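hey so u asked for the seq, here:
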Amino acid sequence: MNLNFSTLYWIMKKQSTHKKQVYRIILKSLAFIGLSALAFSLLRTALLSPAPTNHKKASTKPIIVDISQLSAGEIKTVHWNNQHIAILHRTVAMLEQVDIHNRNNKYFVFINQGGDVNCPLTTDTKTKHYLKDICSGYLYDSSGKVLKSNARVRNLSIPPHRLINKHQMLIGEINNTGT
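ran it, structure tokens below
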């Protein structure tokens, strides 16, 4: 058998072209299978996913908190709207440090997250006049204003609330005149 260079080249080129076609078919088949699996999973998720629940609506219902046992300087924490809400019974010294329009409010209600990392607050052990972030050490007055200005630290957030009577507070709802 007489094989010259051009015949060998032609045979190798023919086999190379055949391999390319096989690889092309395999690649297209894998892409089709992948896209089909993706489409199937998306349709399955969209058609078979459970209906949305009403957890969010249920958690925003107002709650009534008993404050009759809360002594001056103490903080009571409750859970409302997926947040920890704190009720501070202000001391006389705390009332003297707040704005005039807040002096009639013996209770300060706030979302119990302070500083830039949202740690809970407690009364400052040294003075008992301030609220202190237990992680960062930031101090707040008893109306929720941060004492040292810092761009990362914000004043405390106040949830909607109102006093029902001298023993109960409603959190999550306000009356027409405000809190």
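The first strand starts at residue 63 and ends at 66. Residues 1-49 form one domain.
lmk if thats what u needed
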